[in-house]
Design the sequence.
């Protein structure tokens, strides 16, 4: 009999549900939350309220788009964390209630593991190519920047991670600082396409090993814009594209430098990327070019699986389910990975 996993994701500001049958994606429904746009960032209380409104229609839609009834579900997988506690609470409580009412097992998933395993989602009519174990995954999102050694679907080793801001946070905060809007990543990505990446230079961190740091480059941009604006108030307006291209290039140089080191240190040449920032067109091009130069097998997630979605939670949940893992009904969501 087929194993049908319903995945539920509610860690930040996207309410999502997806159905996977034996690793094949049947549906993936995402409801975003526009309410945060005018605040220039996610407002946790508003996010939880929107999840409450969205969760029932999103789950119903995912089950119906899969051509199934809720009674067909074999297990319910949900994001336990990390993320915003109030948001996680909505998805966790809903998953528990549904699993209990259907009499099926509950499986908890680490959101970051979902991002890493997104590349294993199988889709009808799509070339389903995925890395061989062990491989390296550059996990880059609004909350994390890590180089992960993936030994198997359920065995991860963090080789390096940010010691301060995440790279997505640097994109978002700097976009806000430049008055460009939120979320900053896609805005800077778009403007960078028509700018000169070599025009301006920003400070790069010197962090030992495979760890990252992005707070210095953020400060470097802040002082740079402040000083130039003092000389010429229209500086930002006249140089927006070049600033974005140069800033983005600095972030990508930092990311690539450590990733190359990690590959050299481990001898691993299967390289994947995941997380919201993996949608960045510059990063995708750089990883592809670096891969061609160094003989890597590179794996870029489809754009729809880069930002938060429940398909990645369902696939990760499927791996956990197949390994016999179940979670008790009294499990609580956690805001930080360290609390897992
Ligand atoms: O994975 P995600 O949806 O949520 C977290 O778990 O954090 O990532 C959101 C982050 C935001 O910082 C957003 O600015 C960034 O991903 N992002 C991008 C792009 N699209 C989204 N950053 C750079 N370029 C993009 N095209």
Sequence:
């Amino acid at each position: 009999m087929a194993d049908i996993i319903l995945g539920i994701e509610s860690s930040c500001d996207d309410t999502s549900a997806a159905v996977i049958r034996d690793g094949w994606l049947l549906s993936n429904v995402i409801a975003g939350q526009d309410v945060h746009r005018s605040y220039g960032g996610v407002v946790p209380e508003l996010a939880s309220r929107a999840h409450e409104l969205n969760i029932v229609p999103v789950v119903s839609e995912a089950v119906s788009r899969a051509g199934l009834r809720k009674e067909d579900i074999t297990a319910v997988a949900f994001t336990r964390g990390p993320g915003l506690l109030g948001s996680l609470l909505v998805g966790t409580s809903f998953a528990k209630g549904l699993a209990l009412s259907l009499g099926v097992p509950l499986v908890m998933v680490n959101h970051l593991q979902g991002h890493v395993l997104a590349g294993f989602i199988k889709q009808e009519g799509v070339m389903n190519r995925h890395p061989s174990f062990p491989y390296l995954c550059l996990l880059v999102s609004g909350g994390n920047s890590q180089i992960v050694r993936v030994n198997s679907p359920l065995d991860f080793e963090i080789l390096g991670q940010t010691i301060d801001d995440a790279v997505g946070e640097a994109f978002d905060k700097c976009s806000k600082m430049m008055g460009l809007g939120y979320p900053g990543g896609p805005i800077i990505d778009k403007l960078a396409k028509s700018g000169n990446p070599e025009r301006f230079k920003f400070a790069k961190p010197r962090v030992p090993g495979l760890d990252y740091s992005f707070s210095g480059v953020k400060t470097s941009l802040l002082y740079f814009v402040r000083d130039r604006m003092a000389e010429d108030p229209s500086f930002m307006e006249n140089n927006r594209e070049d600033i974005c291209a140069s800033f983005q290039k600095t972030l990508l140089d930092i990311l690539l430098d450590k990733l190359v080191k990690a590959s050299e240190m481990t001898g691993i040449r299967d390289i994947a990327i995941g997380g919201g920032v993996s949608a960045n067109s510059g990063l995708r091009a750089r990883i592809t070019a670096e891969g061609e130069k160094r003989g890597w097998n590179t794996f870029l997630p489809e754009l729809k699986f880069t930002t938060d979605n429940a398909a990645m939670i369902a696939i990760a949940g499927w791996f956990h389910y197949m390994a016999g893992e179940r979670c008790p009904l009294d499990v609580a969501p956690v805001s930080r990975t360290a609390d897992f």
Remarks:
- The chain has a mean pLDDT of 95.
- Residues 12, 141-143, 168, 171-172, 183-186, 189, 275-277, 279-280, 307-308 surround KG4 (CB under 6 Å).
